[in-house]
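Usage

Read records sequentially. Each one opens with the input sequence:
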Amino acid sequence: MKKMDRNQILSWLGEVTHPAKGDAPLAALGMIEDVKVTDGSIHVTLAFPKRPDPLKNYLVGAVQSCLYRHAPGGTSIEVDTIVKEPAKPAKKGIEFNLEQLREVRHIIGIASGKGGVGKSTVAVNLAVALARLGYRVGLADADVYGPSIPTMTGTEGAEIGMQGEEEESALFVPVEKYGVKWLSVGHVTSEGQALIWRGPMASTALKQIILQTAWAPLDFLLIDMPPGTGDIHITLIGDVPVEGAVIVTTPQTVALSDVLRGVNMFRNPQVQKPVFGLVENMSWFTPLEHPEEKYFIFGKGGGEKMARDLDIPFLGQIPLVQSIREDADSGTPAALQDRPDSQAFLDLARKLAAAV
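and closes with the structure output:
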């Protein structure tokens, strides 16, 4: 096996760029303070200025991921940080607390048992619909591996501000559009950047997005959760005071079979969070040219039956229409319009508001 050397490692790290500084490589920005190589180990030190960098944890994770990709298997990799001006010991990390959620009345998770059911589409349109009803609303995108909120809201490339000077207390300032405050991992990473994060890295990023953001005051903070019941969900439920959840499904049997798993996660004795209701997405297809026709492509009535069997409220049905997909792709949520499909999201918002 060929021995690793410092120049080789620096060439690997040329792949790691700073999204907020024109995607310039860290080396070009003078942020790679030191690289040490010994048999079977790599130690990289990153230098940060005194002013807080909101992407510090992301950049540390990106360097680790880059080295794990290139280095031989079994290589020990360590990345630490220093403050270069003035020189002082590296920070131990951010102390998370719930201070920024004190003036948030309701924190609701939008969840699904499986992917592909349109959970993020429902979350975005529900947020906009609640705002149209006069509520103060925010949405945190907790799907750190597949953040789609920037595209659906037309906020790709939006500059995320920071509030505060000290790194331990600095806060993200969310993007505001359509009367909603939005924040996603997709807002603080490069477009198309693959986030090769282990569970703890992803969990830390999630806590930053939710707990280190100037949300308040809000009536509703919706959290677009990733599908399934993994590490992210455990972190979310354990460290964030989520009041309860809304489950999104489609009528087809394979989706409904996963609903039970999602509901049981919130009903677990160690969790005990209420499920405010079930939303059936893609309930039927309606052609644009024939708005009165309904084609039940994925089955009929499955969501309502599942809600009845699980003894949870049925919050409504969202049709599968071309305009919802087009609006999501263009960054203008369907709930902004006054079409029948838009009315379905407004009805959903009214029922959720009444349920909580």
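Summary fields computed downstream for this record:
- The chain is about 30% helix and 25% strand.
- The first strand starts at residue 17 and ends at 18.
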